[in-house]
Amino acid sequence: MSEPTPTIEGLSIELFADGADLQALRRLAELPYIAGFTTNPTHMRKAGIVNYEVFARDAVEIAGDRPISFEVFADDFQEMIVQARTIATWGPNVFVKIPVTDTTGRSTAEAMRYLSSDGVQLNVTALLTVSQTEDVVAALEPEVPSFVSIFAGRVADTGRDPVPIVRAGLEVMAAVPASRMIWASPRELLNIFHADEAGCHVITVTSDLLGKLHLVGKDLTEFSLETVKMFYDDASAAGFKIAPLEIPARTPTGGTT
Question: Does residue 4 belong to any structural domain of this protein?
Fold first, then answer.
């Protein structure tokens, strides 16, 4: 029995490009299926970003009218609020990423509540549990647009299935109709289909994973043949040789001659 062929066109979920390479973001912005953008301090550091605001304003211009998220880097709640209010002025489509806790594990719900009640569009990030989703939802204004980012890939890294956590979180989020859930930190292309089936609204995808989208729905027999040819071509290009041994021929009864 053959499996149904997956297609990107059949997805309900939105794809957000995740990264901090401006050149890559410009390329991705030209793709019709990229509905938004996210980044974080780790991506920015790897990309060699020095000036946060200069980078962000360039990225906002690239994003156009699509949502884009930038993260605070403070650990003090008051400083988070100050940074968030500043970041929010960078564009009407900007969402401010607030971590679900500070570095000691204290909930940032107080800062979220203050900012959301003031109309700041938030992207609450680094959630891994349903209880965290409940705390975040309780802090958000129901009619203020926001994102709740479940780091499903990190959940999977622990050997747990993230899908039940995502589905339970979506039920909790019914109380904040202007908010949407993001499946963050995917590990493989199949996660796009996992997230879509779970009912998640958005998935963040890095350039590496987006580079594999052309494989969606590919004929598996053809893909198998391409794999065989790849191994053969690489062995030939490497010049590998195996010195033949003289092996005695076997007789029909299993003996040797």
Answer: no
Q: Which residues contact 21 (CB under 8 A, 6 or more apart)?
A: 47, 207
Does residue 66 sit within a domain? yes
- Specify the CATH number for the domain of residue 97: 3.20.20.70
Residue 156 and residue 225: Cα distance in Å, rounded? 31
Find out whether 94 and 122 touch, Cβ atoms under 8 Å.
no
Whole-angstrom distance, CA of residue 31 vs CA of residue 152: 25
In terms of Cα–Cα distance, which of 221, 169, 161, 165 is closest to 187?
161
Residue 186 sits in which domain range? 14-215
Per residue in 6-27, pLDDT (tens digit) is: 777 789 999 999 999 999 999 9
Domain-embedded: residue 84:
yes
Whole-model pTM: value is: 0.90
Over the stretch 59-103, which tens digit does the pLDDT of each residue have?
A: 999 999 999 999 999 999 999 999 999 999 999 999 999 999 999
Distance between CA atoms of 196 and 181, rounded to whole angstroms? 11
